[in-house]
Request: fold
Amino acid sequence: MKAIKAFCEKHREILLYLLFGVLTTVVSFAVYFLLLHAGVALLGEGAEWGVRVAAQILQWVAGVLFAFVTNKKYVFRDENTERGHVGRTLVAFASSRVVTLLLDSAVTFGVVALLEAVGYEPFTIPLPYFPLTVTADWIAKLAAAVVTIVGNYIFSKFLVFRKR
Reply:
């Protein structure tokens, strides 16, 4: 038990970053898939790519706001609440997230297009109470999440919340 506690204390920042990265991904996925399914249901199958773009942008906004609060307060322990500091930090944070949004979008759209081009067929994992259909979008968003979490940590650690 002491070894686990020592490990957690030594790696507190990265462990919290990963925890909040996963939670940010859950928030982003929830927004993306809710909007994707609602948009396609309302606008029809022909509007899928336009709905994907809208869902991508709105999931990014939700994820950035959630991540900023959790990263500032819990991960990097930035306790400076001066308005100017918070504003500058938020702008730097959001700017770095624009870069990873572009990476996320490239991976998401690239993987979906690639899987569609090779004729990928979704399959269902029969989970209790909630069967999960693994679509091209699911695979793409998982791949994009890995790239995004790593990129965001690098930006946050070394640019946005660096100790001055």
